[in-house]
């Protein structure tokens, strides 16, 4: 593994006390990658426990509506209800091989927390999850699911009480307890080697999509769309297509509009800086202070982004755009009504962008949307928003 540089982004901007745990993690991960026993055990859990491969679903109604061939990569059907299970299972298994006796995690929308709780339960390792109080209030169902699975959810009352603050607290815990504790980071962010580890565990999404679309259509898609908060589901489906003539589109949280300043569109409106141990794009003021963010979706309510996405933005390989809260809510209803599939609010941003992208596509063009998670967790919140507008 290299020093964790993605075109100059990434790296390790951490206190000296974290250097040894990060080096231990990097060495353990390199050993696990080369260990056929580890890989076989992981593949067994992914297939027999998590339910891989997930389907690639052709959307007949949406295709007719939008005028092109629309497919959904169904990570919402993975055990736990989101792509997060791929990474959590991989890292929890790595923790087990490293002899760690405790796993900590952070979560925003709750899906990574649920996935880590699931992985800890099946592998027999206690789990504690840091979660901002704001996110706990809007994701009560996932808080209950984590506790039901045996995890301890630790409320974070500092800052904006969202994902950024939960990451801060998890890092503080790890600094103090690194000897026995494994920090299961939930996205392609943070110091090296996390962006590489999480990407590798999520690559399965794109690898499956590639073989499935070739089987279904006999050719690669014209475009792939995925939502981007930290960016793990997007990098997972994009990565196996980076060298192909496929248009890749990442969709950030436009919140109340980029001009309002109330959004989570890091790549669309951010500048280069350091957050949570890595150099990447982030939302900050002229003095380098991290700005508060807003999104209707807790999982996209984050001021930073994975360093590999920053590299892909600067290289022009992936196009990044933003979708507003209102557009995501409309897509949430559209997919539910037309295809019988309730998407996570995070995924709804990708669906909303698909509606826009289809305007420039021909009837035989193929569009794949990564449906990163299911929307059960968001139904209560969306009902409250829609009820309040009536």
From TrEMBL:
GO CC list: cytoplasm
GO molecular function: tryptophan synthase activity
CDD domains, per the entry: Trp-synth_B
Residues with PTM N6-(pyridoxal phosphate)lysine: 84
EC number, UniProt record: 4.2.1.20
Keyword rRNA-binding: no
Residues in the signal sequence: none
Residue span(s) of domain Tryptophan synthase beta chain-like PALP: 50-373
Cofactor field: pyridoxal 5'-phosphate
Record-linked SUPFAM superfamilies: Tryptophan synthase beta subunit-like PLP-dependent enzymes
Keyword terms: Amino-acid biosynthesis, Aromatic amino acid biosynthesis, Lyase, Pyridoxal phosphate, Tryptophan biosynthesis
Annotated metabolic or biological route of this protein: Amino-acid biosynthesis; L-tryptophan biosynthesis; L-tryptophan from chorismate: step 5/5
Catalytic activity of the protein: (1S,2R)-1-C-(indol-3-yl)glycerol 3-phosphate + L-serine = D-glyceraldehyde 3-phosphate + L-tryptophan + H2O
Record-linked InterPro entries: Trp_synth_b_CS, Trp_synth_beta, Trp_synth_beta/beta-like, TrpB-like_PALP, TrpB-like_PALP_sf
Assembly behavior: Tetramer of two alpha and two beta chains.
Similarity field: Belongs to the TrpB family.
UniProt cross-references to NCBIfam families, sorted A to Z: trpB
Function recorded in the entry: The beta subunit is responsible for the synthesis of L-tryptophan from indole and L-serine.
Protein name per its UniProtKB record: Tryptophan synthase beta chain
Gene behind this protein: trpB
